[in-house]
Amino acid sequence: MVNNQTKSSDLSAIALEEYRPYLLRYALLQLRDNALAEDAVQETLLAALESRTTFSGKSSAKTWLTGILKHKVLDIFRKQAKEAKQVTLEAELESGAGDFDSLFQPDGHWETWPQAWADPFKNLENKRFWEIFEICAKLMPANTARVFMMREFLGLSAKEICKEMQITATNCWVMLYRARMSLRLCLEQNWFGGKLERR
Amino acid sequence: MLTCNEVSKLVSQSLDRRLNLVEWAGLRMHFLLCEGCRHFRKQMAFIRRACQHYPD
């Protein structure tokens, strides 16, 4: 009981406020829209304030808040999927067809062979790496990015994404492929390889 | 024999669905001979791990 009270008071409105910049950055990466991101964060903090007694302290407050935010983001994605005309998505799929074929020779070999990324995991602690990552993520077309965020950040299965976005499994795989290819290429050019001038 | 272009697509799909035996065998055979695709596979795995670490 005493413990619980301590934990609740630890997460006062002021304490929660400290997480706002982090949550905003996370929401912005997902939603790519300032107003939407701010709303999602506001709702997250309000929900956290209302339910802070349920915060067990087993995970960090940041993880707990991120968990709430993910649900808010997914709600927004669902709404967008319902509102968005399916035409937009299909147009995106069509216009992006063959986008990454230029990375390959006609016989299917790599045009430029992927090189080893030296010790990539050490970059996860590097603030600058994440700035580049965020810039690269923004280069993906809107629907492709949404599918990618659902898969890699919100943890939905490909099957669940098909249902939410009302797309076929094949189209889902295609969009995830393009998202990864685009992110990989951008990271290689701007972070790992510095091969920008060669392309 | 799978081409690198086909391999890149299968590697991505292996992160989203269970590949069948033929696909797995094709990938393994290709990786034995192709260093570029081995790098590519590691890069795809890194991207997934990176996304999971974002909140830190």
Strand and helix map with partners:
The complex is a heterodimer of chains A (199) and B (56).
Chain A: H1 2-10, H2 13-17, H3 20-31, H4 34-50, H5 61-83, H6 86-95, H7 127-138, H8 142-152, H9 158-165, H10 169-192
Helix pairs in contact in A: 3-4, 3-5, 4-5, 7-10, 8-10, 9-10
Chain B: H1 4-13, H2 21-33, H3 35-53
Helix pairs in contact in B: 1-2, 1-3
Number of domains of chain B: 1
Radius of gyration of chain A: 20 Å
Output the helix-strand order of chain A: HHHHHHHHHH
Helix content of chain B: over 70%
- Mind telling me the CATH class of the largest domain in chain A? Mainly Alpha
Identify low-pLDDT runs of chain B.
Answer: none
- Please trace the helix and strand order of chain B, writing H or E for each element: HHH
Count of DSSP H/I helices of chain B: 3
User: Beta fraction of the residues of chain B?
Assistant: under 5%
CATH architecture label of the largest domain in chain A: Orthogonal Bundle
The multimeric state of the shown protein is heterodimer
Characterize the biggest β-sheet of chain A: none
Number of domains of chain A: 2
CATH superfamily of the largest domain in chain A: Winged helix-like DNA-binding domain superfamily/Winged helix DNA-binding domain
Q: Could you name the CATH topology of the largest domain in chain A?
A: Arc Repressor Mutant, subunit A
The number of helices of chain A is 10
Quick summary:
The complex is a heterodimer of chains A (199) and B (56). Helices cover 66% and strands 0% of the residues of chain A.
Main attributes of the structure:
heterodimer; A: Rna Polymerase Sigma Factor, Chain: A; Arc Repressor Mutant, subunit A; 10 helices; globular; disordered C terminus; B: 56 residues; mainly alpha; 3 helices; 75% helix
